[in-house]
Amino acid sequence: MPAKVDMDKIVSLCKRRGLIFPSSEIYGGLASCWDYGPMGVELKRNVRDAWWKSIVHERDDVVGLDTSIMMHPGVWAASGHIDSFTDPLVECKSCHLRWRADAIEGKGCPKCGGELTEPRMFNLMFKTSMGPVEEEASTIYLRPETAQGIFVNFDNVITTSRKKLPLGIAQIGKSFRNEITTGNFIFRTREFEHMELEYFVKPGTDEEWLDYWVKERFDWYVKLGVRKENLRLRQHGKDELAHYARDCYDIEYLFPMGWSELEGIANRGDFDLIQHAKCSGKELSYYDNEAGEKYVPYVIEPSAGVDRSVLAFLIDAYDEEEIEGEKRTVLHLHRSLAPIKVAVLPLSRNEKLTPLAKEVFNKLCPNFVTDYDDSQSIGRRYRRQDEIGTPFCVTIDFESLEDKQVTIRERDSLAQIRVPVEELDKILAAKLRGEAFDASPLWATREK
Ligand code: ATP
Predict the structure, then answer these.
(1) End-to-end Cα, the chain, rounded Å
(2) Measuring CA to CA, how many Å separate 65 from each of 45, 57, 147, 151, 205?
(3) 19 C-alpha to center of ligand 1: Å?
(4) Which ligand 1 atom is nearest residue 308's CA?
(5) Which of 146, 188, 247 to mutate for ligand 1's pocket (most ligand atoms within 8 Å of CB)?
(6) pLDDT tens, residue by residue, 273-312
(7) Rg (CA), the chain
(8) What is the 3-state secondary structure (H, E, C) of 79-96?
(9) 304: which residues sit within 8 A by CB, 6+ positions away?
């Protein structure tokens, strides 16, 4: 049974190993803003790529899109964000801290117990102005979701992609929400990244498609290694549904602070296309050639956060084990998510070993994200790779110079196999595809 991890351990590992740093740290940081370091940027990219692969590349009914963060302000009036994208805010009359009214227990200020003001609705969109004149007419918003960029391009995509419904349009990009309360590391921040799919279907088939996407999305996390017992589904109550939603499910993950939303999958009906058609004056409907009918499609929307997924993957992969009396911290990340796939480690920084080690590195790096490390003892270098979740280490020793063989060490089993340098590429590629590799003809041991 893996160790229960608290958030402090994750935050400290992320800092120590170059995954995630506090933003503007040398100036004392900026509340709830985080920077992804050399390892974090790879992990985050792998999460995005895994989503894009499963949603866009492995299907013929979804296409991609990349729309601008700043949009015509009319978009946000039509979508209901100007009127309804609000949270109830209360302020403490003594310490002046502000809280989300629906997220606090009891009547007093959670910090000092002081009396709270009556709740007022606070709009979560960040406002800015476009162009050199700051006046009402130039007010624009940073998008709080990527979905609206998809809806306003519905007609462009339908007419240019020549695809039939059901058709999905997918987008990954930054969103901004001036959240009243942030926290729990990268769980809730004011700047984050969305991965959103708007899947357009014929009305009447929407409930079936909602079920389909709930299952698809749940399975995606499981396929990428998240333990099933740490995931659950929760249907929204009627009183909880967003203004546009007919039905909605949350995929929840057991974060250290308790079960919390990881992703939402909503049936948005025809709300958005109808609103944009009405407010823009441009018809947004679909002509079904086969049935000879025209209709406004319904939309199923799986909406996930890149950062929140990164956090769940990190927490689920984290483990502390005891190996022959020594503690090792390890991230059992799925091989497709691991920031580094292979680490090339000469046994020591010896001038005789360096040329072969470099040769091996140069051979591997065009095909796999590869790290080269010859500092400190081999044991410490293994521990470092374990902590960032590198699935395979390749060690070059003095025998390698004679027999042109190197050792592959597996992160999870700690098994070691000795293989010819010539075969290394092929063997690692198979292992990284998840294929079993028959090591029986080769020498195998477990790390001492
Ligand atoms: P919440 O109720 O937690 O405020 P929400 O239901 O408004 O979130 P959605 O609009 O459904 O969130 O966004 C979909 C996904 O985007 C969420 O499940 C989450 O993964 C991510 N997300 C939303 N807001 C944030 C945020 N402030 N920081 C990080 N990720 C976020």
Answers:
(1) 23
(2) 17, 13, 10, 11, 24
(3) 22
(4) 20
(5) 188
(6) 999 999 999 999 999 998 899 999 999 999 999 999 999 9
(7) 26
(8) HCHHHHCEEEEEEECCCC
(9) 51, 194, 195, 196, 217, 262, 263
